[in-house]
Write a structure and sequence with these properties.
The protein has about 325 residues and is an alpha+beta fold. It contains eleven helices and 16 strands. A hairpin with a 2-residue loop joins strand 7 and strand 8. The N and C termini lie far apart (about 50 Å).
């Protein structure tokens, strides 16, 4: 441990850079005996559900709006002073260990499962006809989804037969395509399926154009999210379809958007939807949780088709002790 002539401890520039940018918060927490709970590819603390440790070494405390690596965790959570924290992380490192390895070329990417999206149709005519006339979505909403690369009309060729489908594209936070969900474009079609190899861990999201959302609205299905947007296109919020009732897309969203402090559940108005709202909402910490239920119909698209023209005000979430158990 280096000391100055006055006897005070100090750290070098190299030690600080290592502690600030390289030392992993996850590795540090595990080395200190913190009991972390694995949730998918992330870890949380039993005492703080909103505190997340990621495999890349990052730490997020969503309820406080804090994030960083090991040094930030020590300063902001443990309350250690800067000198002691830096020296604890880097004080016994050799100079070679403090210098980030030079990279003459980018590291090889991990192999990804190949995603073969359906062939696009020459036009989106059937897509607009079905979604705007049958499902009552606003033309401008559908156009925005198409222009943003979140939706298109795809073809499913089976011999001489060609089926036209709405293809809802899944993307990760970097905007990369990681899968898609396809459904038929007629009222009688039962064709609904994820494209083989799709990754649904981030769900299907309609981001607010400003990229500065004030809230997150959560749905079960893509068309419900688009229906909600039709009813309130000016809402400054992101809309996330879980593509079912799994919690992973919601938890991943909150890890990547610690600035969002209000979550509004807009799941189906049936037993499964209400039970899932209870199960999912009670896993959240550090955010305001609300519920918004369609005034009539099972879901938001049914409400829209029934002539709904406006959204009800969200209501405060009330946890229930007798919520039916179900897998989410």
């Amino acid at each position: 441990m280096a000391t100055s002539k006055s006897g005070k401890n100090y750290y070098t520039k190299e030690q600080y850079q290592y502690a600030k940018y390289q030392a992993s918060a996850l590795e540090y927490a595990l080395s200190k005996g913190y009991k972390l709970i694995p949730k998918g590819q992330y870890y949380t603390m039993p005492e703080h559900d909103s505190m997340v440790f990621a495999p890349n070494g990052m730490w997020y405390w969503n309820s406080r709006g804090l994030k960083g690596k090991a040094l930030d965790f020590m300063l902001q959570y443990e309350g250690k002073n800067l000198v002691d924290a830096v020296l604890e992380l880097a004080g016994d490192k050799e100079p070679a260990q403090l210098t980030p390895p030079k990279q003459s070329a980018p590291p090889p990417e991990k192999p990804r499962q190949f995603i073969s999206l359906p062939e696009p149709s020459d036009t989106n005519r059937r897509l607009y006809a079905y979604l705007c006339k049958e499902r009552k979505l606003d033309y401008k909403v559908v156009s925005r989804l198409v222009n943003d690369g979140l939706l298109y009309e795809g073809l499913n060729r089976q011999g001489e037969k060609v089926q036209h489908n709405a293809v809802f594209v899944y993307r990760n936070p970097e905007g990369e395509v990681i899968g898609a969900f396809a459904r038929g474009l007629t009222s009688t079609s039962t064709y609904k399926r994820d494209i083989r190899g799709s990754d649904k861990s981030f769900g299907w999201m309609i981001p607010h154009p400003s990229r500065e959302p004030e809230a997150l609205y959560v749905f079960e299905a893509c068309i419900d999210a688009a229906s909600h947007m039709t009813l309130s296109p000016w809402e400054k919020a992101d809309r996330l379809s879980l593509e079912g009732l799994a919690p992973k897309p919601l938890l991943n969203y909150l890890v990547n958007h610690p600035e969002v402090k209000r979550v509004v559940f807009c799941l189906d108005n049936d037993l499964a939807g209400r039970a899932a709202t209870q199960r999912l909402a009670q896993r959240l910490e550090g955010v305001e949780v609300m519920v918004q239920i369609p005034p009539n119909g099972k879901d938001w698209n049914e409400y829209l088709k029934n002539g709904g023209t406006k959204l009800p005000q969200p209501e405060a979430f009330l946890p229930l002790s007798n919520t039916p158990e179900m897998e989410v």
